[in-house]
Structure formats: structure tokens, C-alpha cells
Amino acid sequence: MNKKLIKQLIESKMGEDGVIDTNIKGVQLFRVTQPMRCAPAVYEPCVVAIVSGAKEAILDGKHYIYDESQYMCCPMSMPVEAGTPKASPDVPLLGVKISLDTKVMTELTIEMATTTGVIQKQRSTVTSQGLVTARWDDIFSDALLRLLQLCDNSSESALLGDGRLRELYYAILKGDAGQSAKSAFGVGNEIARSIDYLSSHLHEVITIDDMATQLGMSRAVLHRKFKEATSMSPIQFVKSMRLNTAAMKIATGMNVSTAAMDVGYVSSSQFSREFKRLYGQSPKQWVHAQDIPKGALN
Asked: Are residue 168 and residue 282 in the same domain, yes or no?
């Protein structure tokens, strides 16, 4: 029932394709009616909940398809390919994207961990944290509906928005995505903090030794933990983040040389070679082949 009300709420605001901001910071609604094959994107920490249609994301060759039966949680910045392969006017993609505030998620995760009986002891096995899908359980549906019900009233949003967001974060931590989210935001989240740093310093020269020293780890331990958390090696992750970020800039009209420099490449020819190796086309060929509707890469 709550999911039906959430869908009605989104439909009432999305008369045409695109992305709109709500009165609550970090909460966006989107609608897409054009199919789009997966293209390079960078997911920042967020949750995406679909109420109609389906989205696809690819991380290091693994495909994640999520729809109205499960939401997607990305607790760390990740280089992905994302698309809407089945969107159409008859079955539009409708959904909501909620950015995850790192500070609030960390505080809540630690508070929950210190409250007896709220969080079970973490399992000894480590699963990839980079991208995870989770069932729409009752606690998540209730929290999302209560959050979206504020969107029509700016004064209520200002007064209650932070509390409703915290309630939704709690639902995420309690649900199927909780283990990955706790690993990213809780105590011992060195890899998540390293990724946060890398994401904001792509234009700088970053070495594996620098990363290992910053975290107080050996290269071998860093490599192992990084791959456990993201399914990629540190070098592979940095390269994918740079190329995906540059591809998004090029898709919005930035010239190839500027985009390459913005993400740390000093040689346009090296950038073009690595771009073609990853995407199978030169940057110019790739951008001419794209037709990206608004909201498709959320």
C-alpha cells in the first residue's frame, strides 16, 4: 500500500522526463521514457528506489538490475555504467534518488553499534560494499513515504526533513543493505574514507604507496581490503573513476583535452588510448554515439 502511495506521489510531480529537486536537500525525483544502453557514470553515496520500470548498473563486469521489488544502495563513490534499457512511454522509469550524508550516516551507524541489541555482530566474511540491492521491506517503505510526504510543504520540510532522512537512513541500516552500509560508514571504514579522498582528488597524482601510507597499511593489505570492498584493485578503481568522470564531462559538451586534464591526465593521447581500451571507441566516437536522456544516469 505504501509503495502505491509513493508511486502516486512521484507521478503527480513528474509530468515529463527529467530530474527535479525536492524541498529536501539530496532528494530528487526522476522520470525516463527513452531506453538507453549503459554508459559511464559515477555513483556518489546514495539510494535509488524505483516505483515503475527498471534500471541497470554495471560494476566491474557485474550487472545489477533493480526495479520496484528492490532498491539500490551505493554507500561509496563508485565508477559504474548505468542505463535504462527497457524504459518506454508505456512503462516509464519512475523513482527517487536520496543522497547519503556521510556525516549523518557515520554518526547513526556508530550510535546503533553502541546500542545493545540493535545491531547484530558483524559477520567475519567480507562482501563487496560497492553496490548492493535490497528488498523493499516495511520499515523502508514507511520511512520513504513519510519523507516524500514533506515535499509539498517547504516549512514542514525545513522542520522535519532532517529527522525523516535520519529515519530513512536507519531503515537502510536495518535492511538488506545494512551490512554494506555499516562497513562503509562504521568504525574501521578505512577503504571508504580512502575512496572519498580519491574521488575529490582525481586531478592529482595518486600512488598506491601514498594510499597505503595514509591508511597505515602495507601495499598487500591495502590491495586485499580494497578488492574486498569494491571488487577492483586500487589502480583499476582510480583509472575507472577518472575515465568515467571524464566521459560524463565530455557527454555534457566539454572538449576531450579539458576533460582529460580535469581528471589528472597530462597526455591527451594517453587518455584517448585508455578510453578506447575501456569503452571500445575513441572519446569523440563515443560521444557521437550517445543519446542520454535526463535522469538516466542517476
From this structure: no
